[in-house]
TrEMBL record:
Bacterial sugar transferase domain: residues covered: 51-166
Name the record gives this protein: UDP-glucose:undecaprenyl-phosphate glucose-1-phosphate transferase
Species in which this protein is naturally found: termite gut metagenome
GO molecular function, one term: undecaprenyl-phosphate glucose phosphotransferase activity
Main enzyme class: transferase
Listed EC numbers: 2.7.8.31
TM segment ranges: 56-78
Stretches assigned to coiled coil: none
Length: 170
């Protein structure tokens, strides 16, 4: 049987790494501890530095060791199977309402509705390779370029289409 004195170092350590104990309940002789993650403010310069450093490091790893060779394969297949550009870029709304061009592999036939009409399930505009890219999320691999540029972050909310800006700002 573990005594409370043996548990205290663990509870102290959990608090130190940002996990806060909400309640300790007893129900039918079972004790349960409810934990929550304590929010770390990105208002603090050090926390922003850590997050940005992680974004740069991780996106460089992905771009150098994954994207650098897989782009050749995916780009070739896109070019062979459908006319149009390899990449698709769309204006998105990012942090503080700042607009930027979000880069993705093109998964649909080129069309004029790309910036205004959202894709739906079984959308006829999606190409055969595009269907595979979307299912595997490989179409989003070029977004690590956006992460490296500072337009996006590895951890955080996804940027949305410009037409959704008003909806999400409420």
């Amino acid at each position: 049987m573990v005594h409370y004195s043996q548990r205290l170092p663990l509870l102290k350590r959990l608090f130190e790494i940002g996990i806060k104990i909400i309640t300790i309940n007893t129900f039918n002789n079972f004790r349960s501890i409810f934990l929550t993650l304590q929010k770390t403010s990105l208002q603090q310069p050090f926390n922003r530095f850590i997050k940005r450093s992680f974004d740069i490091f991780f996106s460089l790893l992905v771009l150098l060791f994954l994207f650098s060779w897989i782009v050749l394969i995916i780009a070739s297949i896109i070019k062979i199977t459908s006319p149009g550009p390899v990449f698709f870029s769309q204006k998105r709304t990012g942090k503080d309402g700042k607009e930027f061009w979000c880069i993705k592999f093109r998964s649909m036939r080129p069309n004029e509705e790309a910036d205004t009409k959202q894709a739906v399930k079984d959308d006829p505009r999606v190409t055969l390779i595009g269907n595979f890219l979307r299912r595997t999320n490989l179409d989003e691999l070029p977004q690590f370029i956006n992460v490296l540029k500072g337009d996006m972050s590895v951890v955080g909310p996804r940027p949305h289409m410009l037409k959704h800006t008003e909806y999400y700002s409420e």
